[in-house]
Amino acid sequence: MDQIKIGKFIAYRRKKQGLSQKQLAEQIDVTDKTISKWETGNRLPDASILLKLSEALQIDVNELLAGEEYSSEEFSSEEYLKKSEDNLVNLVGEINEMDKKRKSGGIGMFIGIACIALALFDLVDSSLRMGSLTDIFDMPTLFYLSGIKFLLLSTFGWIHEYFSAWKICVAGKAQSENEIKLSMQAVKYAGALTLTLGCLTSSIGIFSLLNYTDQLSLVIAPALAQITLSFVYAAVEETVYVILLFRIKYVLLKTIRKD
């Protein structure tokens, strides 16, 4: 279902009726911000409001879901019924997809907040130990990087596709060509975020280190170790995402060949 097309059609019909966004919103008991989201293609109208919206725009629900007007001569009754069924199936699929994204978004936000909380707890509870193999596992740095990444992916609506990428490669779950392409894009975003956050965290660490000029000999070794680990974690995660991306591309090629 083409959200952009439907949004433009809603805007076209509203203007044709001589209504402002606020006037249309008042007629169907929503806010003008909701109308704006529909018209820009950022959101679809809820199923419960489709009939009211169609009546306000003086079209039928089938035209609304298709994002275009139908003339009575254009289709036979059988063809019109078939289009209605197709639009209904698409709507149900879109609602299911939106529900999955909402659930994934909630999971992503929870993971992000949990990681940051663990980072803060570990930072307060302990300090970086020197002279041990376990020094490479600096939990506050690792949790900060992971937590912020999950929060950003959830905020910008890519967490569902990010999880799908792992399902495709690890669990071997079958996906459509479009879903695979979206998963590839999500992995690219995750990789870019990892590099950006790694550099940002390290830069903040270097800046903080410069404030300890009077105690440089006492803090320089642990601080530099922690800063270096930000780059190490970013490099490791980016390598994983590159491998994941190649794997998804391979799955995509197999899907295209089957079709």
What is the compact description of this entry?
The chain has 259 residues and is mostly helical. The protein contains ten helices and no strands.
Structure report:
InterPro entries: Cro/C1-type_HTH, Lambda_DNA-bd_dom_sf. Keywords: DNA-binding, Membrane, Transmembrane, Transmembrane helix. The structure is a single chain. The protein is an all-alpha fold. It has 2 domains: 64 residues, 434 Repressor (Amino-terminal Domain); 162 residues, no CATH class. 77% of the residues lie in helices and 0% in strands. The chain is built from 10 helices and no strands. Helix 6 runs antiparallel to helix 7. It is elongated.
Rg value:
25 Å
* Number of individual domains: 2
What form results from the Cα inertia axes?
Answer: elongated
The rounded distance between the terminal residues' Cα atoms is 21 Å
Low-confidence stretches: 127-131
What structural class do you assign from the helix and strand content? mainly alpha
**In what range is the share of β-strand residues?**
under 5%
Q: Could you give the order of the helices and strands?
A: HHHHHHHHHH
User: What is the helix content?
Assistant: over 70%
Oligomerization state of this entry?
single chain
Largest sheet geometry: none
Count, helices: 10
Mean pLDDT: 73
Number of strands: 0
GO molecular function, one term: DNA binding
Keywords: DNA-binding, Membrane, Transmembrane, Transmembrane helix
Transmembrane segments: 104-121, 141-159, 189-212, 224-248
Domain HTH cro/C1-type: 10-64
